[in-house]
Design brief:
- Helix 17 crosses helix 19.
- It is built from 19 helices and 16 strands.
- The protein is an alpha/beta fold.
- It is globular and about 65 Å long.
- Helix content is 42%, strand content 12%.
Length: 568
């Protein structure tokens, strides 16, 4: 299927069950591919041609099997691939429907508007006082320089607490590790370690294993992000990748001003400062992520007393903002690309949570830049990893360079040299295990499964806190992932610190909002570690549910106590 067909199909859904066509949307005949893939291609074609529209409900698995003449397992696999690609959505106890539009049909108009400086209509104010206060605090925002951690900073202790196995792990952003794909990864790793034992001096030299880069590129391309393996550089995670490119930026331009979201992930600020740059706070909002409207005013204001902001680079999390959970709309993505192009700003797209987006999966910035390569586009590097979607212990991520020119300080060859100087290479056996996991399709199915799992766990956490605390707590719904911002607008900074300490004493690790440069009081919670609500199989009883209920009860009790003191 062509990139245009894929982009179009990604914005439409569901299907009308009937027999399989003899020819697929890619031109292949039915006899040349597995039967489940024939169904996948048929449905993609129906979405691309408009026969299936956004929101339309699909036949049930059994009904589709009867209509198409396929086995039930083949239909399950076909629906699974479509869901993993973001084309259809699984709804608990309601079956499947076509995913909502991502706005790709209007890409050109939106980009033209953005290039011409057109403004977008902003959403209405929040219904919750916590969000309203959050918006009002930045109504006349001025960018400010922010500093990161020192070795004596309390943030180091907070991170140590978040990773302490003796504490309930509601702090660190670790995914669920008790998953079939994770267990299979380590079986594969053991096998590959044995195979590589005869080559003790071998490294997976930069740019990284060819098999792994090919597997990642094929996985991304299959899900609508048309990636070439030759544009990928393997790193030891997203944080390491950002440090590499920030180091190259320092070598090329000296000390730079790098925009970061506020609130935002403190590790990014640490990487900026460690490379000698200055971090500049740009406001982020719940529901929408980076406030592109404020950024535009800062970059293009005409005020003699306050000069316009100058940025050399901007690091943005367009999907699954950490910690607020917001997501940039497609029009704002166009607007951001146009702004960066006009002001020669290097965009660094942080995609660590992007694959865990729930109902709405917008095109990545890299996708839009690729589709509109004939228009002015900024330099753009996308950073990803397996740390949030699979297991942080893989120590594996990647840089996807939109412009892998040979002679640029941020081109692939220069980045390869920097990567080699910064650790020489990686573990070839882990690269081999990951490439096999991805190529088999197990990784894609794992991400698809965990999206549903995390959505349930977040819903459970939010329902519990809302029922216990009502309007005294602000719980903006995340767009994906497993992190929940718990806004506590009535608490002062000292009261929040006391709450954080009281929770530690009660055996619960959280991360206070001050670590994220948040101006509003709050905590970041991790729902991935809360487990399922009830045991699904009565034949396999578990003590997980009572244990999780105890954690939630202790968390709620301390929140209620702190809020009562704050209101008093």
């Amino acid at each position: 299927m062509s990139s245009a067909e894929h982009a179009s199909s990604a914005s439409r859904p569901s299907l009308v069950g009937s027999s399989i066509d003899a020819t697929t949307s890619s031109g292949a005949t039915a006899a040349t591919m597995p039967r489940y893939q024939q169904l996948v291609e048929r449905l993609k074609t129906q979405m691309a041609t408009g026969k299936l529209s956004a929101g339309q409900r699909l036949p049930s698995l059994r009904r589709q099997a009867a209509q198409s003449g396929l086995g039930l397992n083949s239909v399950i696999r076909a629906y699974g691939e479509l869901e993993a690609a973001g084309l259809i959505i699984a709804e608990p106890r309601a079956g499947y429907r076509v995913a909502p539009s991502t706005g790709t049909a209007h890409d050109t108009n939106e980009l033209d508007s953005a290039l011409n400086g057109g403004s977008q209509t902003r959403p209405a104010s929040s219904r919750h006082p916590g969000e309203l206060e959050h918006r009002q605090q930045e109504s006349h925002h001025r960018p400010r320089a922010i500093t990161t951690l020192t070795i004596s900073d309390p943030a180091w202790q907070a991170m140590a607490n978040a990773s302490d196995p003796h504490l309930a792990p509601l702090g660190a952003a670790h995914p669920e590790l008790d998953a079939p794909a994770v267990r299979r990864l380590y079986r594969l790793a053991r096998t590959q370690l044995g195979a590589h034992a005869q080559h003790p001096s071998a490294y997976a030299l930069p740019p990284g294993s060819s098999a792994l880069r090919t597997a990642i590129a094929q996985h991304l391309s299959h899900h609508g992000h048309l990636c070439d393996s030759d544009a990928l550089l393997i790193s030891q995670g997203a944080q390491h990748g950002m440090s590499l490119l920030l180091g190259q930026l320092r070598a090329a331009k000296g000390r730079c001003q790098v925009g970061v979201e506020a609130p935002g992930y403190f590790g990014i600020v640490a990487a900026i400062e460690a490379q000698g740059h200055q971090a500049i706070a740009i406001p982020a909002r719940a529901h929408q992520g980076l406030d592109v409207e404020v950024l535009e005013r800062l970059l293009e204001r005409h005020d003699d007393k306050t000069p316009a902001l100058t940025l050399d680079a901007l690091i943005v999390t367009a999907d699954g903002h950490n910690p607020l959970g917001g997501q940039l709309s497609t029009p704002d993505r166009h607007r951001l690309l146009a702004l960066a192009a006009r002001h020669a700003i290097l965009l660094v797209e942080n995609t660590t949570f992007a694959e865990l987006s729930f109902d709405t999966r917008h095109p990545w910035l890299a996708d839009l830049a690729h589709r509109h390569a004939d228009r002015p586009m900024p330099a753009l590097i996308s950073v990803g990893s397996f740390s949030k979607t699979l297991d942080p212990r893989t120590r594996c991520g990647w840089l996807w360079l939109s412009r892998p020119e040979q002679d640029s300080p941020l081109g692939l060859q220069a980045m390869i040299r920097a990567r080699w100087a910064n650790g020489m290479g990686d573990m070839p056996w882990m690269h081999a295990a990951l490439s096999e996991l991805i190529t088999s399709g197990d990784y894609g199915r794992h991400v698809q499964r965990m999206r549903r799992c995390y959505a349930r766990r977040l819903e459970r956490l939010r329902a519990h806190l809302s029922a216990a605390l009502g309007d005294s707590v602000w719980l903006p719904p995340p767009s994906g992932g497993y992190l929940q911002w718990c806004g506590l607008p009535s608490l002062e900074a000292q009261q929040l610190e006391q709450l954080h300490q009281d929770l530690l004493n009660a055996g619960i690790a959280t991360l206070p909002g001050s670590l994220f440069n948040a101006e509003q009081s709050g905590l970041r919670l991790n729902a991935a570690q809360l487990g399922e609500e009830v045991t699904q199989n009565a034949a396999r009883p578990s003590d997980a549910a009572p244990r999780q209920q105890d954690i939630l009860a202790r968390l709620t009790a301390h929140l209620q106590k702190a809020l009562a003191q704050g209101e008093g």
